[in-house]
Each structure stands twice: as structure tokens, then as C-alpha cells.
Amino acid sequence: MAFPNKEPVTKEVAYMQMVQDSCIFKVVLSGVAGFALGGLVGMFFSSFEMGTADPSIYEQPMKQQLKATAKDMFQRSFSTAKNFAIVGAIFTGTECVIEGYRAKNDVYNGTAAGCITGAILAAKAGPQAALMGCAGFAAFSTAIDLYLRRE
Amino acid sequence: MAEQELEMITDTFYRIVDMCYKKCIPPKYIDGELNKGESVCIDRCVAKYFEVNMKIGEALQKKGQQTGVGGSVTGFGA
Questions:
Q1: Residue A89 contacts residue A27 (beta carbons within 8 Å)
Q2: What digits encode the pLDDT tens for the residues A46-89?
Q3: pLDDT above 90: residue A96
Q4: pLDDT digits (tens, 9 = 90+) for B47-67
């Protein structure tokens, strides 16, 4: 029994839809995207801080300098990429689970997920830092969601 | 008899569609496709509808047996 004008959905398409809606797929996708974005951002920001290398590097031949610079750049961008991937994965995972639980799609899912993510990220620095992290990340996520959902 | 049943099923179907649409899909549409929250809501809505149907059918049958009034109850559930 279906709406008369709609063409029937094939099983493969329905399965693809279900997979794309699943939480695990979203988490993986968000992790990969976060990694890529973090890599780019890290590579960009690594250009600002070359002063951490020891000064003797400037006396070595050009190839050595390039190699050391590249190594430092990749290390920095890798660590930033990892951080972005973890943050994205945690946020997307919690938001997806909360949405699945509430069975509603509104802006508060992002707020709650942001609070949990902020608290997890700041957990090592004690409960007060976790509270601040929760508030900050929740506000940030809510602002972005409201902007994306505006009319 | 089959006609009656077809009509009953169609009526049930459209009732469920109407009710679950009103309950689960907020009036502000961002996208044409159902997102995760709405899919979960609709799944739960349909499941609850059938379960409520079944329970009421059973309760009615029990009531009918107790009072001994009325014949078989041709309900939607079962």
C-alpha cells in the first residue's frame, strides 16, 4: 500500500538509506572528515611556529633543512588532525545517540552533545574545567546549529 | 466480507499515516527526506499503534466474554 504516484523504493536504495542514517556510519564519516580538516588546519598553523627547532639547523645544507621542516610540519598537522577527528567523532556519536533516543530532530540535540563533548575533552583538568568546556562547546554548537537552521 | 476487510485495512492505514505524521514530523521543513529522529519516531509510532490496537481488542473480548453480551468482536488487531 503506497502513495499512488511515488515510484517503489528498491531494496538496495532503502538499505543504503538505512546505512547512511545509522550512527556508526555517521561517526566514521565525521572522524574521517575531521581528520582531513584537521590536517589542513594543522599544516596551515604549523607555518607560524618554526622557532621551536634548534638553531643549529640553519647551518646545515638546504636538503636537511627542508627535511626537518617537513617532519615538523607533518607531526604538527598529524596531531591536529587526530584531535579534530576525535572531537568530531565524539560529537557526532553523542548527537546521533541522543537523537535516536529522543526521536526528535531539533537544535537541543546539538546542545546536549556539545556539552558532553566539551566535558569529555576538558575532563583531565578537573570538574570546573569540564563544566566550562561543556558550557562553551554547547554554546558553540547551538550557535552553529541555529545558523544552519535559519529560514 | 473481503471488501469489508479491505476497507478496514485501508482505513487503519490512513489513520496510522495521519496520526504518526501529526505526532512525529514538526511543521518546519528543512529537508524533504526523513532524518534519523523522525524515522525512529515513526517506527515507534506504528509499533505503539498496533500494540494499543491489540490490547484494546483483547480487553474488549474479555469484557464480551465476561458479560456474555455480543458476538465475536471483529477488531483491527490480531
A1: yes
A2: 877 765 666 666 777 778 778 888 888 888 899 999 999 999 99
A3: yes
A4: 999 999 999 999 999 999 988
ipTM of the complex: 0.73
With an 8 Å Cβ cutoff, are A103 and B44 in contact?
Answer: yes
Q: Where are the alpha helices (DSSP H) in chain A?
A: 11-21, 23-46, 62-102, 108-121, 127-148
Residue B69 lies in a domain: no
Q: What CATH number should be reported for the domain holding residue B30?
A: 1.10.287.810
Specify if B30 maps to a domain: yes
Please tell me the distance from the alpha carbon of residue B24 to that of residue B27, in angstroms, as a whole number.
10
How many structural domains are present in chain B?
1
Is B13 inside any structural domain?
yes
Domain that holds residue B52: 2-62
Share of chain B residues as helix, strand and coil, in percent rounded to the nearest 5: 70, 0, 30
Does B57 map to a domain? yes
In angstroms, the separation between the Cα of residue A117 and the nearest Cα of chain B is 20
Contact B36 A100 (CB under 8 A): yes
Nine-digit cell at B13? 492505514
Q: Write out chain B residues lying below 8 Å of A109, CB-based.
A: 37
- Write down the pTM of the prediction: 0.79
